[in-house]
Amino acid sequence: MFTERTIIYFTPFYFKNGNTAKNKYFVVLKNIDNKSILASLPTSKDYIPEKLVIEQGCIECESSNLNCFVLSPSTKITEDGKCFSVSTYLYGHLLDEYSIDTLTELYPYEASDYQIWGQMKISLFNDLIECLKNSKSVKRKYKKIL
After folding, report:
1. What's the predicted TM-score (pTM) here?
2. Residue range 110-132: average pLDDT?
3. Domain count of the chain?
């Protein structure tokens, strides 16, 4: 479940900061010694300045301290050809580390607590990782993990 490139759909996802739980996709970027994982929570919220709009790929805006990887709805994201229904954004400053023990305690049952949505295509995953590793807005400790 917590292998790199796995996209998991949690129903619902419980946020660390106590925000209201909601259904959420989760992309596993790195498994760290089977103790924790580095992950991104994709969103449909577009916070990109208008002058930087692109349909697909990496955006880095040093003046706004913004890093984002954009997935267009026409892009087949998973190895089995799944797409998100709307433009989807993975922001560099929103990466976080999660304990595997905590996640397996919160979400014990596949099908009712979560679904494995698919494995991200290798080429797309590598582009995402490069985008995050080369960003000035991603925390240094996360870049080292990647």
Report:
1. 0.92
2. 97
3. 1
